[in-house]
Amino acid sequence: MSDPRPRGRKLLVWLTLLVLAFGGGAGWQFTKAQAARAETREAQRMLAERESELAIQRTEGLLAAATIAAQLGSYERSRQFASEFFTMAQARDADVSEETRRGLAQILESRDATITSLSRADANAALDLARLFVRYRRVTGGDPGIFDITPADTSRAESSH
Length: 161
Description:
Number of strands: 0
Radius of gyration: 31 Å
Distance between the termini: 105 Å
Number of helices: 6
Order of helices and strands: HHHHHH
Mean pLDDT: 84
Structural class: mainly alpha
Low-confidence stretches: 150-161
């Protein structure tokens, strides 16, 4: 009969190699999973940024549409766009910095006056909306570009709100 010790030792070596192989594979998978989690977190962060930017652009688009509708004399449609703008701007409050929040609060203060002006088909409403558009662009970090208001226009805009 053969001695069982060498066979047991051989089995122990194979089991050790199997455990090491399994452990190595599990470690490799763990490392890959950690990297995938990090990539997922970064993708989620970037997606949240893009969604925020998109929401700002949609809100801005509503204000632009309200301005154009008022300029064309479609005050009721302008009022609807402006109302949507104010609702969306108010919803942005939780997603923005404190400085932007303060700027949005100032813009939101003009809600009632703007809606009333449009309801009355006030011809000055289009200019007021254009000024509001420029303020919104500044508050949200957009470049007002060609939309800059002259100092005389700014003082009138601030005194009317």
